[in-house]
Design a protein that fits this description.
Elements: H1 2-25
Length: about 30
Amino acid sequence: DPEQALLYFLPFSVQRMRRFVASKAGVVDLHR
């Protein structure tokens, strides 16, 4: 089911994106 696969993949994708942006920003508050 494509929708189920997307729901499984989405949180991982978001986490990677946040880490990437955080590394780009330099200083980051991980609790936010």
